[in-house]
Design goal:
This protein has about 290 residues and is mainly α. It is built from eleven helices and six strands. It has a two-stranded antiparallel ribbon with strand order 1-2. It has a two-stranded antiparallel sheet with strand order 3-4. The longest helix has about 35 residues.
Length: about 290
Amino acid sequence: MTKDTEERYQVGRAIEVADSRTDIVTGEGVGLVLPTVSLGTRIMSAVIDTTLYAVVTGLAIYLTLRVWEPSNAAQIITWLTTYLMVWAVLIPFAVQYATKGSSLGRVMTGSRTVRYDGGTIGMRHALTRSVAGLFDIHLSLGVLGISSILLTSKGQRSGDLLAGTIVVSWPRRYRGPEPHSVDPSLARWAQVATISPVPGHLSIASRDFLRSAKPMTEDARISRARDLAAGLEMFVAPPPPRGTNPEAFIATVLAVREAADYEREAQAMVRQMKTEERLTTLPYSVR
């Protein structure tokens, strides 16, 4: 850190930011505050779902017996095998695929199944997890699944390893990252400043800092804020006034860029709508 950087960015009142952890970064560079869940949460979710699926399957068996009963051993075996597959594979697959990785047990325990990059699961992921669940949950009485969860760093059972998924904490009211706002002390500077697009890695680092700065020690927080402010200064003109709070500068740069990106996307959408309107409108000479 240079002396000029220390003089330009003075630390006064610290900006209050949300305290959170980023455990997954998607391919689009979006940090997700989604830590993996514990073994107890996994077991509780599985018990809730398995019980619900058993009730649904039992109701289907009762209704079937009302209209038809197997008359020999072969029919009984076929009948039992079919309902076992429905209970252990078909229903879990349908629920996971329809809800994109959720279920009643997942909702009640505040968790969700996602891909390695934090994205929603698809048909392949749901089918792989459901078929594997027949072995590591039902046929092995959960021993294989629990062993796999305990032995893997991200708490993955065999189905998760095969499908490329993990189970993460998913709050019921998760709202994603909050938009940033221009600091009042830099409002006049923000009106005349030109802020170029910030590289992805620097933008992610700045957002992560603002989210996780609160529990940091004072010296580490000041040093990190000044380093990030010096990096962002390369993409602004003119530079902020001397004595600027570095955290205020970081938040203001992100806020201005967010507003500019929103405006650019809004204009692109308007142009697309006008283009589609021209393409779908008949020429004036055609009646």
